[in-house]
Design brief:
About 80% of the residues lie in helices and about 0% in strands. It contains eleven helices and no strands. Helix 2 runs antiparallel to helix 5, helix 4 packs across helix 11 and helix 8 packs across helix 9. The longest helix is centred in the middle third of the chain and has 39 residues. Its main location: membrane. InterPro entries: Virul_fac_BrkB (IPR017039). It comes from Neobacillus massiliamazoniensis.
């Protein structure tokens, strides 16, 4: 092994030690729990704020449909359909405040995980942190709206324009391929914003790109991999009955949390190395 190889191996050992020291498995389990608690409140806020957009609420689950395992998606869709069919005006008034607060719990858990990655204590006041959590939640909702609107309306506009030239079928093939790139860019924007703003550390936006890129690619691969595993190899519903759906959903949330935390650790690791001049 050459000198360059020894340096890389040493860095890998240091990073692995960091992962064990910060108890990534435990942090990911905590994050998965808070993700579960905040998932449906986040969807409630999203669907409540968009009642007049002429898009079926089934299409608003576009991003989840692209990546989530079928069992997890079924559970999410059933609960969203129930919520939408029993929706009342209370959600549009004072009730939405509590819903937004609940939805921001997932962001708050991410903030604490990132602070641990950078080995810093939270010195910002509770009001500041909670306000940031809520703003980031609204930011995620806005990005999710774009993730919904761009593919749906972009497809319709493209079909109309290309049909004038007689190329609608070719455009649909091209759009289906490009939609994956659009989704990846949207996810990259979400992760970049989280890694940049959430930690109690002053960071340059470009310094969080390594973790954001890792999280984007890792989340897509892990989600699609879990979907393939559940669909083709191991049917959890057959093994565990109705509770298998919960197991798949929690596994998906845990993998998502693990990828996000590792991305934060990558950014913190490189930030520390840069400060030390390594």
């Amino acid at each position: 092994m050459g000198k360059a190889g020894e340096v890389r191996f040493s860095l890998i050992k240091l990073f692995w030690h960091r992962i064990e020291e910060d108890d990534i498995n435990g942090l990911s389990a905590q994050l998965a729990y808070f993700f579960l608690l905040s998932l449906f409140p986040l969807l409630i806020v999203l669907f409540t704020l968009l009642p007049y957009i002429p898009i079926p609420h089934e299409d608003m689950l576009y991003l989840i449909k692209r990546f989530a395992p079928d069992e997890a998606l079924d559970l999410i869709e059933k609960n969203v359909n129930y919520i939408m069919s029993n929706r009342n005006s209370g959600l549009l008034s004072f009730g939405i405040i509590g819903t937004i607060f609940a939805a921001s719990n997932g962001i708050d858990a991410i903030v604490r995980a990132f602070n641990k990655a950078y080995d810093v204590k939270e010195t910002r006041s509770f009001i500041v942190v909670r306000g940031m959590d809520i703003l980031l939640t609204f930011g995620m909702i806005l990005v999710l709206i774009l993730a919904i609107v761009i593919p749906i309306f972009g497809r319709e506009i493209g079909v109309f324009l290309f049909s004038l030239l007689g190329y609608s079928s070719q455009f649909l093939k091209l759009w289906n391929a490009l939609s994956w790139l659009v989704n990846a860019i949207i996810l990259l924007l979400i992760f970049t914003g989280l890694y940049w703003i959430a930690p109690n550390v002053k960071l340059r936006c470009k310094s969080v790109f390594p973790g954001a890129i890792f999280a984007t690619i890792g989340w897509i691969i892990s989600s699609l991999g879990l979907s393939f595993y559940v669909r083709k190899i191991n049917d959890f519903s057959f093994m565990y009955g109705s509770i298998g759906t919960i197991i798949v959903l929690m596994t998906w949330l845990y993998l998502s949390a693990y990828i996000i935390v590792i991305g934060g650790e990558i950014n913190a690791f490189y930030s520390e190395k840069n400060r030390k001049g390594c």
